[in-house]
Amino acid sequence: MSEARSPGVPPVMPTDTLSPAVEMDPVEYTLRKRLPRKLPKRRNDVYVNMKTDFKAQLARCQKLLDGGGHREICVHGLGLAINRAINIALQLQASSQGALQLAANTSTVELVDDLEPDDPDETGEPMTRTRNNSAIHIKVFYPDPQ
User: Fold this and answer.
1) Among 141, 122, 36, 95, which residue's Cα sits nearest to residue 87?
2) Which residues are within 8 A (CB) of 33 and not within 5 positions of it... i.e. 6 or more apart?
3) 84 in Cβ contact with 77 (< 8 Å)
4) DSSP letter at 51?
């Protein structure tokens, strides 16, 4: 007999990138996400995240453009923060009455997660898992006067 499912609901597929030969019980391991590798930090780089207040991040970008002596800044967003990075760049452009221009680049960043066994007395060994995440890099700049 076939199993009844709700229409439009796809079957659940495993999403981890461990080899199929490795049996992992998620109850026995703790997932620790490592910090992503960052680009070189310059004075005009702004790394957007979802924990800091939006208005504070927008004010920091505005301050760098207005009083920081920079003609351009680079706004970086990773994963869930991509929408926020785009929103910040668009808000900066709107508040400048079109004086600022935007140039966006997307990329894929490889992230590493550590899987640590909950019980160190067991035979489980720590493992690592890699996954990909989307990123955006938006250059917000004043165009050169012609």
Assistant:
1) 95
2) 111, 113, 114
3) yes
4) S
Average pLDDT for the chain: 80
Report d(CA 116, CA 109) in Å as an integer.
23
Inform me whether the pLDDT recorded for 95 exceeds 90: yes
Q: What tokens does 71 get?
A: 């003609």
127-141 and 29-33: which strand pairing?
Answer: unpaired
Mean pLDDT across the stretch 25-53? 79
Give the C-alpha separation, 107 to 13, whole Å. Answer: 25
How far is 92 from 73, CA to CA, in rounded Å?
Answer: 11
pTM attached to this predicted model: 0.71
User: Which of the 8 DSSP states describes residue 34?
Assistant: P
Instruction: Please check whether residue 79 is in contact with residue 134, taking contact to mean a CB–CB distance below 8 angstroms.
Output: yes
User: Cα 19 vs. chain centroid, distance in angstroms?
Assistant: 25
Nearest CA to 31 among 115, 120, 138, 142? Answer: 115
